[in-house]
Amino acid sequence: MDRAIVLMYHNIGRPPKGAKLPGLYVPPQSFRLQMRYLKGLGFNVVSLNEIVAFINGKSKVKRPVALTFDDGFQDFHDNAWPVLRSLGFPATVFVVPGCAGGDNQWDYEYLNVRKKLLGWDTIAKLKDEGVSFSSHSMTHASLPSLTGEALRAEVFGSKAALEEKINRSVDYFCYPYGDYNEETVEMVKAAGYKAAFTTRRGCIFKAGNPFEIHRISIKRTTGMLTFAYKLYMYKCGQQFQK
Ligand SMILES: [Zn+2]
After folding, report:
1. pLDDT of residue 242
2. Using 50, 70 and 90 to split pLDDT, how confident is the model at 236?
């Protein structure tokens, strides 16, 4: 099976009453089962570095799967990391540095719920424990609507802010809302990111485009059968470098 998979999670927890898009919440119990399943079936949970190595034909890992968590919610610390840590799984959290320690100000009106985001102290603690952090832009703006300095501030600014706080190189970018255009991609490359992640559905093949990496979204309604199906059967998502 010559392909890699990046799973995309948002919240690990139970949706509060009245929250729109409750599908973005994966119950902790399901999450635990999914992680055990990965281990039990011999998938190798790897870092994003290994995914990029796979794309470049430089990885020897069999059945690589990487785990990503968008937005940097507090429930990653509370519900996801204890499970991942006990299994020894690496994970990447895409944070929004301009909102760290606050809430999802970019969509709380629409979602009808304020979701707590990881603060810098918790981010530092998680980093020390082995979690990787990368950028999800400065303010979770839809980037194709921006140009010039405003776009630069989201892409370059978030990298600089995050690197200063965690004292690590920030190599990956995740497009807010999955929105991007040619100018966005050029800015992401110019800022020095090594790869960028979309919300496009599918798995990853060798020689794919590292700035349009597809992922597989795991939702509240993803039962174990569907989870297995997604891991084994997905064939879509081939996207080659130009
Ligand atoms: Zn997001």
Report:
1. 34
2. low
Q: Domain 5-233 is in which class?
A: alpha beta
pLDDT on residue 4: 94
Domain layout of the chain by residue ranges: 5-233
Q: For residue 115, how far is its CA from the centre of ligand 1 (angstroms)?
A: 12
pLDDT digits (tens, 9 = 90+) for 15-40: 988 888 899 999 999 999 999 999 99
| Residue matched to tokens 């892409």 | 155
Cα 52 to ligand 1 centroid, rounded to whole Å: 21
Q: Residue 240 pLDDT > 80, yes or no?
A: no
CA–centroid distance, 60 to ligand 1, in Å, is: 31
Cβ 81 vs Cβ 126: under 8 Å: yes
Q: In angstroms, what is the span from residue 96 Cα to ligand 1's centroid?
A: 8
Q: What is each CA distance from 153 to 74, 138, 145, 160, 190, in whole angstroms?
A: 25, 7, 13, 10, 13
Residue 192 scores a pLDDT above 50: yes
- How many Å lie between the centroid of ligand 1 and the Cα of residue 66? 17
Reading the block at residue 33, the tokens are: 């089962």
Residues 6+ apart with CB under 8 A from 64: 4, 5, 43, 44, 46, 50, 51, 54
Antiparallel, parallel or unpaired: β 5-9 and 132-135: unpaired
pLDDT band at residue 238 under the 50/70/90 scheme = very low
Cα(73) to ligand 1 centroid in Å equals 10
Q: How far is the CA of 197 from the centre of ligand 1 (A)?
A: 11
User: Which residues have a Cβ under 8 Å from the Cβ of 210 and sit 6 or more positions away?
Assistant: 52, 55, 56, 194, 195, 196, 241
